[in-house]
Design a protein that fits this description.
Elements lengths: L2 H24 L6 E3 L2 E4 L2 E3 L1 E5 L3 H5 L5 H13 L4 E5 L10 E3 L2 E2 L1 H16 L3 E5 L9 H11 L14 H15 L16 E5 L13 H17 L4 E3 L26 H6 L6 E5 L1 H4 L5 H23 L3 E6 L10 H20 L4 E7 L21 H25 L6
Helix pairs in contact: 1-12, 3-4, 5-6, 6-7, 10-11, 11-12
Length: about 425
């Protein structure tokens, strides 16, 4: 182990000891709410540092692999991470939750029960996504294929948003998840404060309608449906943050293209409780150098922070970001520096009056998960310096929460 890794390890351990109790207490209270551009927990403003681990239910479907879920939650809690975003879908294919429309594998549902129970055990709240935009784990393509096989006239994947049969498939899945009785915690999902929020779709996109009206209509319908079933939990769309036609002057902030969504109009829907952005300048601007990519990243965060606060008046979450080991010139030090810079930018926005209320790095994994690797994987037990960066950010979030609590009570906080 190099000297820098030893220093990172020591820092990580010290911060772990300071934060693990804070992380566990975080999910002992009631449901997370919103108040203006802030998340609120038990009456106090709440900021969070979190992570993505999309694979949890899929891995937990094999009982002998469930320790990977437990290890990841334990290590995340030790690093002060308090929110995890993961999939509550697997449509067709290997270890499918939904084998066909309305037909579920109880074994896989019990795997999701386990994920929720372990999150509760380690004091971590969950954001659960209902479906994928992409074919991975089924997604929109699988729903449309199911409808085609049933004799419904569909032309392509974008018919997901408008075909009544497909929309009913989706609604049935949403209802099945929200009303699920957890066989381990003995709590119905919609009554469980371990779940922080539902997500309509991972990265919705639409090529058939560049005006964004198709996606907007779908979001309105499905958001209303979710809220009719569950008024306890927060709801977000799962958007990447692309601007659209509602404020065309803002399209200059996009990475040179659009995806059929509109950050402003989609998030103005009243049933949507908070906004999200994803950011992958290494993919979106792959032909540009690292300096240009980072400049884009900072503009992307800043403009969405301003718009979430000034126009939408809702909290903003940086729901996906990371540094891929597949990037040219990648090194562990480069990843640590990238994460540090992104975190610092978010903190700067927060310290000047509010901005990004939470972040979810992509992605945490456990040891022995090479088949799930996408280049962005972080294994906290192995990557000591990265753990130090992440733990330090968690500590800053705790400090910000302390400052906000002091301001609420009219106290001067050092």
């Amino acid at each position: 182990m190099s000297r820098s890794h030893k220093v990172g390890y020591v820092v990580g351990v010290l911060i772990t000891l300071a934060l693990v109790c804070q992380a566990r207490v975080h999910s002992d209270g009631g449901f997370v709410r919103t108040e203006g551009t802030r998340f609120v927990l038990d009456g106090s403003s709440s900021l969070f540092n979190g992570f993505n681990s999309y694979w949890m239910m899929h891995v937990a479907a094999e009982p002998s692999e469930r320790y990977k879920v437990s290890n990841t939650f334990r290590e995340a809690a030790g690093a002060g991470l308090s929110v995890c975003r993961t999939w509550a879908f697997s449509d067709g294919g290997d270890r499918a939750l939904q084998i066909s429309p309305g037909t579920y594998d109880e074994r896989v549902f019990q795997a999701l029960d386990f994920v929720i129970s372990e999150a509760r055990r380690y004091g971590i709240r969950l954001i659960l996504s209902f479906v994928n935009n992409y074919k991975d784990y089924g997604g929109r393509p699988q729903y449309v294929e199911w409808a085609r096989n049933a004799g419904v006239n569909v032309d392509g994947e974008d018919d997901f948003y408008t075909t009544p049969t497909v929309k009913e498939y989706y609604k049935n899945h949403v209802k099945r998840v929200i009303t699920r009785f957890n066989t381990i915690t003995r709590i119905v999902y919609k009554d469980d404060p371990t779940i922080m929020a539902w997500e309509l779709m991972n990265e919705p996109r639409c090529q058939a309608d560049s005006s964004e009206k198709m996606v907007n209509g779908w979001v309105q319908e499905m958001a209303s449906f979710v809220k009719s079933l569950d008024k306890n939990h927060l709801l977000e769309i799962g958007m990447e943050g692309f601007y659209g036609d509602s404020m065309p002057e803002k399209k200059v902030n996009n990475p040179g293209y659009q995806v059929g969504t509109d950050f402003i109009s989609n998030n103005l829907i009243k049933e949507i409780d908070f906004t999200t952005i994803h950011a992958y300048p290494d993919i979106w601007l792959s032909g540009q150098n690292e300096s240009a990519q980072m400049a884009f990243m900072q503009r992307w965060m800043q403009c969405h922070s301003i718009d979430s606060k000034g126009i939408l008046k809702k909290p903003l979450v940086m729901a996906e970001f990371g540094k891929s080991s597949k990037d040219q010139g990648y090194s562990l030090g480069a990843r640590d520096q990238y994460l540090s810079t992104v975190y610092q930018s978010m903190n700067n926005f927060e310290s000047t009056g509010g901005g990004i209320s939470g972040s979810l790095v992509w992605q945490l994994m456990a040891e022995g998960m090479d088949s799930y690797g996408d280049g962005y994987g972080i294994i906290l037990s192995q990557d000591a310096s990265t753990r130090g960066v992440i733990s330090a950010e968690s500590h800053k979030m705790t400090t910000f929460r302390h400052m906000l609590l002091g301001r609420k009570h009219g106290k001067s906080v050092p």
